[in-house]
Amino acid sequence: MPAIEEAALPSVAVRLGQRIATARERSGLPIATLARRVGTTADQLRAAERNGSLSTLQLERLAEATDQSIEFFLAAADDEPVGALLRTQDASRSSTRSAVDWFEQFIERYEFLAGRAGD
Question: 49: which of 13, 21, 26, 44 fits an S-S bond (Cβ 3.0–4.6 Å)?
């Protein structure tokens, strides 16, 4: 997997934050209700809308609560690696790193299978 350039991270995080805000707006749910479903606070969800900072579990819950696919949040216009989109508060924890690694592999397999289905 190519290295992530530091300069690319802010735009990726901002793009993810925009998708979080879009999903919330489309859902029509009050921010407090959505935050409870995601497992966070309204203030933290507002912050995530600005900086894309959600754990993988929270992102999964957000997708479910807003009736969006995970691809909606992770789709990258420039093929950025998924790891750049997953902004966790404690990325140094081995369990978090393992989850991010697993998710990257999952997306790579999904993209491979989706490509094969189109053949």
Answer: 21
Q: For 33-90, how does the pLDDT look when each residue is reduced to its tens digit (9 = 90+)?
A: 999 999 999 999 999 998 888 888 899 999 999 999 888 887 755 444 454 445 444 4
- Give 17's DSSP letter: H
Greatest pairwise CA separation for the chain in angstroms: 45
Crossing angle of helices 42-51 and 8-27, in 10° steps, is: 130
Amino acid at residue number 8:
A
Cβ atoms < 10 Å from Cβ of 51: 14
Task: State if pTM tops 0.85.
Answer: no
Query: What tokens does 81 get?
Result: 């690696």
Q: Which alpha helices (DSSP H) does 6-93 contain, by range?
A: 8-27, 31-38, 42-51, 56-66, 70-74, 82-85
CA distance 13 to 34: 20
113, 115, 86: which is closest to 101 by C-alpha? Answer: 86
